[in-house]
Amino acid sequence: MVTYRTVEWSIDSLAPYKSPVVDGVFLALLQEGREVVIPYLVRIFCACMATGYVPTIWLQVKIVFIPKPGRSSYSGPRDYRPISLTSFLLKTMERLVDRYLRDEALALVPLHPNQHAHQAGKSVETALHQLVVWVEKVLNQQETALGVFLNIEGAFNNTCCDAMCDAFVRRGSEYTIVWWIRATLEGCVVVANLISWILCEARDIQGLPTGGHAVTLLWCLVVDDLLARLSGSDVFIQAYGDTMCLLAVSKFPNTVSGLMQWALSTVETWCNEGRLSVNPDKTGLIAFTRKRTLPSFFEPQFFGVKLSLLGSVKYLGVILDSRLTWREHVGVKARKAHSLLWACRRTCGARWGQRPKVVHQLYFAIVWLTVSFASLVLWPGCQTASAKKKLSKVQRLACLGITGPIRTTPTSAMEALVGLPPLDLLIQGEARSVAHHLWSLGSWSYLHPQQGHSCILTRLQKSDPIFKMGVDVMKPVFNLEPRYRVTMLTREEWIRGPGTPPAVKGLIWFKDGSRTMEGTRAGVYGQSADRRLSISLGKHTTVFQAEVYAILACVHEIETQDLPEKYVSICSDSQAALKVLQAGKTMSPLVRQC
Q: How far apart are alpha carbons 122 and 495 in whole angstroms?
């Protein structure tokens, strides 16, 4: 786990120019002096891991309080968000532990598939896609789905150390790592400047230091126990960090009420075991159905409070209504976009202010990101006449700020001049892009593929067969201990003296990739074996893929010849191909094969 290469990767993965904490160690010093520092760090990290010891100065955590936006007053502790600033040396070691747990322990016993936070290939889009597919299927089959949306109160503040260590033990993690994690969590000393002249110092007895790299994984391991308890039942459960969703489905309203009451009792028991809590007043209860009345329906209780049935709830930044029409969500986003546009309009007028190009960039950088959020699931709601009218008003205001015309200029004319398609078409195009991306990563749900928002992938793949082809994209994987070494030689090193440079030894192979009007090709030449090979890769392959495939072809040729040489040198003129092989992280299956 702790080697020269892994420590080097952990240091390089952090931003260099950040302020040091108590120990006074700059990360840039570690990165620039890696050849001198890393050998000592390897020995220190190995000793710390073997003994379960963490140096005292590493455990001093500086707390900075950031005001939460949108609060009327900032007189209470919950009006601020604490951010933990820890030592860079501790962060480096945390990344090593996090990488080991994800590659080793979680590879054998993975997290629950319905946990979408802090995992490679999963995001808010995958969580919303999975949930909305369920709801759309329920509505189309004339059933009833009772949903409860809750948030664990103070999840990162109140989680006890024993619960996190027990979660690691259940995953089969080594006890030395568990001891080190316990020593890190129990030994933290919090230092905070409450006022400019008052310094507060206290020992942290529970909770997780916000800002640590392994914090999110620790919480995911804790909440995974609750997901496992409810996964075998008739209640669908989904989690994104400390936010959860419970969904009970049945044709009979009294059945969904009973199932939800049992699920909430299970959540209540789990919270009491882990000394956690949920605020029932902030818990949303909604019935997804097309029925006007729900006979024999009763409202479940949660922590002794009867939950009230709502018409809409907010989950992961999206407003869900009982019939999934998206009217309320589109209206809220349109009003927010208007506010942002008027804030941007303060920088320009009809004859003064920013250039049209700058206003266009502001529109896409600020307003468009707000409107297009979760476009994959809400694009059907943007196809109605009322939604198009609201979105058209937003686009018109943006076009007026960009072009500065008279007030009676038609919106379609300004959109044609600026090159902006209508917002509903832009949202639909963004939804196509996200759908194809999820399909490429294997995260697409085929529970209800022909109706609802999922039909956009079927339409996309029917429009052009190229969208059914395999793509060179995968979930991120790490290879921190490669079986090869990449050496970047300068032009002077190649032309200096007769023969090849000293770094080029053993069997020598050359490769190249090129693209013409006829297609892309990869070429391989073995100087020692006098072997020539030209490979056609079709019309859709990029030059970068041809360069990487040529390296892979060299390796296959060397393996088939089975020569007794100890060293093999593959010479390439593509820095992009060499750097991607040198990096420890890749999202390309082709690079992964190398």
A: 48
Q: Residue 453 pLDDT > 70, yes or no?
A: yes
For the residues 530-543, what does the mean pLDDT come to?
87
Q: Phi-psi category of 207—alpha, beta or left, where left has phi over 0 and alpha has psi -120 to 50? A: left
Burial bucket for residue 166 (CB in 10 Å: 0-12, 13-18, 19+): middle
For residue 59, is pLDDT > 90? no
* CA distances, 237 to each of 259, 276, 558 (Å): 12, 18, 51
Name the token pair of 36: 């001198």
* Cα 480 from Cα 366, distance rounded (Å): 37
Q: Are 299 and 257 in contact (CB under 8 A)?
A: yes
For helices 88-100 and 34-51, what crossing angle results, to 10°? 60
The contacts of residue 567 (CB under 8 Å, 6+ apart) are 505, 506, 507
CA–CA dist 362, 367 (Å, integer): 7
What pLDDT sits at residue 195? 57
* 530 CB neighbour count, 10 Å cutoff: 7
Full-model pTM: 0.86
pLDDT at 233: 81
Alpha carbon of residue 262 to chain centroid = 32
Burial zone of 508 (CB within 10 Å; 0-12 exposed, 13-18 middle, 19+ buried): middle
**d(Cα 373, Cα 379) in Å, to the nearest integer?**
10
With b meaning 16 or more CB within 10 Å and e meaning fewer, what string describes 280-316?
A: beebbbbbbbeeeebeebeebebeeeebeebeebebb
Quote the tokens at residue 418. 């600026």
The pLDDT tens digits of the residues spanning 266-325 come to: 999 998 888 888 877 778 999 999 888 888 888 899 988 899 999 999 999 999 999 999
Q: Which residues contact 531 (CB under 8 A, 6 or more apart)?
A: 524, 525, 557, 561
The secondary structure of 260-289 as a DSSP string is HHHHHHHHHHHHHHTT-EE-GGG-EEEEE-
The answer to whether the CB of 97 falls within 8 A of the CB of 472 is no
Q: What is the mean pLDDT of residues 243-261?
A: 91
Residue 497: the pLDDT is 65
Cα separation values, 334 from 195, 330, 349, 359, 382, Å? 40, 6, 22, 19, 11
Cβ atoms of 217 and 96 within 8 Å: the answer is: no
Q: Where are the alpha helices (DSSP H) in 171-275?
A: 175-186, 215-231, 253-273
Give 182's DSSP letter: H
For strands 312-315 and 318-321, give the pairing: antiparallel
Sheet holding 568-571, edge to edge: 531-536, 520-526, 507-515, 568-571
As a whole number of angstroms, the distance between CA 537 and CA 208 comes to: 51
Structure tokens at 347: 């920088």
Closest CA relative to residue 224, chosen from 196, 244, 251 = 244
The structure tokens listed for 366 are: 């600020």
